[in-house]
């Protein structure tokens, strides 16, 4: 895969996010998650949790920029649990439609893996090609996920 050297990557955490333009990243995720997205206000809750300094919360927000524009973003939440539940949940990752297939998504997920300790859970719809990305980075799907939605 070609390395795209014009893309810069940034990691924001609870103690280091003054330089983050929250609205730009939220707008980006709301638009580029495509059909796998959520309401903007829910993505914002996830970001606020990731950047919270409250005990048991936290995580990271990663962004990729090219020519000043956001071309990729990822949000990871710490669960506050350990051992019986994975320590982290990778909640959102998206890359701009015109930037896909150049390794940006893989780099963001690899950075998220490197930025935290413990296991990382995520869910992905069976038909989403993002599965290929996760599997290439070592994620497995031993479990089925069931939800009581209400
Ligand atoms: C999923 C997504 C983030 C991948 O980003 P990307 O920058 O295009 O992915 P990469 O170029 O880093 O690809 C990483 C690997 O996954 C594979 N891959 C990525 N998309 C693929 C696809 N549609 N089909 C097959 N393989 C794919 C690549 O071949 C690559 O493997 P390689 O390193 O062996 O070449 C991007 O497609 C996206 O934003 N999708 C819409 C939002 C979404 O579905 N998010 C995930 C659910 S929350």
TrEMBL record:
<dbReference type="Pfam" id="PF13508">
    <property type="entry name" value="Acetyltransf_7"/>
</dbReference>
<keyword id="KW-0808">Transferase</keyword>
<feature type="domain" description="N-acetyltransferase">
    <location>
        <begin position="7"/>
        <end position="150"/>
    </location>
</feature>
<dbReference type="GO" id="GO:0016747">
    <property type="term" value="F:acyltransferase activity, transferring groups other than amino-acyl groups"/>
</dbReference>
<dbReference type="InterPro" id="IPR000182">
    <property type="entry name" value="GNAT_dom"/>
</dbReference>
<keyword id="KW-0012">Acyltransferase</keyword>
<dbReference type="InterPro" id="IPR050680">
    <property type="entry name" value="YpeA/RimI_acetyltransf"/>
</dbReference>
<protein>
    <submittedName>
        <fullName>N-acetyltransferase</fullName>
    </submittedName>
</protein>
<dbReference type="InterPro" id="IPR016181">
    <property type="entry name" value="Acyl_CoA_acyltransferase"/>
</dbReference>
């Amino acid at each position: 895969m070609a390395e795209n050297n014009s893309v810069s990557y940034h990691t924001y955490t609870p103690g280091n996010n003054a330089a983050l333009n929250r609205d730009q990243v939220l707008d980006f995720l709301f638009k580029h998650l495509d059909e796998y997205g959520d309401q903007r206000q829910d993505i914002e809750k996830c970001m606020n949790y990731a950047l919270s300094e409250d005990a048991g919360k936290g995580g990271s927000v990663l962004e990729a920029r090219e020519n000043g524009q956001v071309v990729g973003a990822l949000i990871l939440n710490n669960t506050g649990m350990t051992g019986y539940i994975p320590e982290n949940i990778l909640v959102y990752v998206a890359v701009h439609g015109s930037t896909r297939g150049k390794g940006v998504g893989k780099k963001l997920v690899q950075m998220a893996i490197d930025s935290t300790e413990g296991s990382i859970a995520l869910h992905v719809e069976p038909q989403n090609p993002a599965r290929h990305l996760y599997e290439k980075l070592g994620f497995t799907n031993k479990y089925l996920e069931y939800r009581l939605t209400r």
